[in-house]
């Protein structure tokens, strides 16, 4: 159960009859009533201990989430929390100063046990169990993306997601994904996670490639046919079109691989 926040409003009486006689009459009547102390004043109730605890927990979690967002490079986050006192708050008096909060230093997404203390003399201390729900704009596919395809920005969109429901990871920015390759077919409206993506394919199976070879300071260039697809630094099999031999080569850049004489 979340610690409830109280919201109240107060308004002045309408004095409708006075309004009917004109603005000047209404203003004069209101002035006389105020001077006589007959109009009610707007009262703002001092926060109760439970309200102070809720406010203190919210401030603490806001700082924790902001620090984690800066560490992870997140953008556009928001959160809510479900906090429950582990003992009764009914007998706690309101604190003259803002209560302090101390607690776990683990993942902000894990359930946290927080100690809230009032440093008045005499003061009090209580414990709250708090669970955060953290929402971030997350990269989704806005259309189906086939296995092996290089991903473009036009295929992506941002949607808000509770990242506690994304155990396989996620991407917070579209530019983190553009240019990568799909390791398997990605459905439309699927959140993208690291396990479905790979470094972009720079060489594709069946593609003609340039083979760079060197040995003892001697360099040579010839053409080959890629027998496998691969991204940068991947080692793939390539058929040398001059000799007909199959060699292992490392992908350097798009359409270029390197090997050494043996």
Outline the structure in words.
With 262 residues, this protein is an alpha+beta fold. The chain has three domains: 49-135, no CATH class; 136-198, Type Iii Antifreeze Protein Isoform Hplc 12 (Alpha-Beta Complex), CATH 3.90.1210; 201-260, SH3 type barrels (Roll). The protein has helices at 16-20, 23-36, 49-72, and strands spanning 78-85, 100-103, 112-118, 124-141, 156-162, 181-182, 197-198, 201-203, 208-215, 218-226, 230-231, 235-240, 246-253, 256-260. The strands form four sheets. Strands 1, 2, 3, 4 and 5 form a five-stranded antiparallel beta sheet that branches. The protein has a five-stranded mixed β-barrel with strand order 9-10-12-13-14. Residues 1-36 have low confidence and may be disordered.
Give the topology string: H per helix, E per strand.
Answer: HHHEEEEEEEEEEEEEE
Briefly note the structural class of the backbone.
alpha+beta
Q: What separation lies between the terminal Cα atoms? A: 71 Å
- Tally of separate helices: 3
Describe the sheet with the most strands.
Answer: 5 strands, antiparallel
Counted beta strands: 14
Strand content: 25-35%
Low-confidence stretches: 1-36
- The best one-word shape is elongated
Q: Total domains, how many?
A: 3
Radius of gyration: 33 Å
Helix proportion: 10-25%
């Amino acid at each position: 159960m979340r610690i409830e926040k109280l919201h109240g409003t107060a308004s002045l009486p309408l004095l409708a009859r006075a309004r009917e006689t004109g603005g000047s009459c209404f203003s004069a009547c209101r002035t006389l009533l105020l001077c006589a102390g007959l109009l009610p004043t707007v009262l703002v109730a001092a926060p109760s201990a439970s309200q102070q605890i809720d406010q203190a927990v919210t401030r603490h979690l806001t700082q924790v989430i902001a620090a984690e967002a800066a560490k992870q490079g997140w953008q556009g986050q928001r959160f809510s929390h479900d906090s429950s006192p582990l003992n009764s708050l009914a007998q706690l008096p309101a604190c003259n100063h803002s209560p302090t909060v101390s607690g776990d230093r683990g993942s902000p997404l894990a359930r946290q046990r927080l100690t809230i203390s009032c440093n008045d003399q005499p003061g009090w201390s209580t414990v709250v169990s708090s669970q955060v729900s953290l929402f971030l704009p997350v990269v989704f596919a806005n259309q189906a993306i086939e296995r092996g395809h290089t991903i473009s920005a036009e295929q992506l969109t941002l949607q808000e997601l509770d990242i506690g429901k994304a155990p396989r990871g996620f991407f917070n920015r579209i530019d983190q994904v553009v240019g990568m390759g799909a390791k398997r077919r990605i459905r439309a409206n699927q959140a993208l996670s690291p396990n479905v993506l790979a470094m972009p394919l720079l060489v594709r199976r069946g593609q003609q490639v340039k083979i760079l070879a060197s040995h003892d300071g001697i360099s040579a260039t010839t053409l080959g046919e890629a027998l496998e697809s691969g991204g940068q630094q991947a080692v793939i099999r390539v058929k040398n079109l001059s000799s007909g031999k199959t060699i292992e080569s490392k992908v350097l850049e798009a359409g270029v691989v390197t090997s050494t004489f043996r």
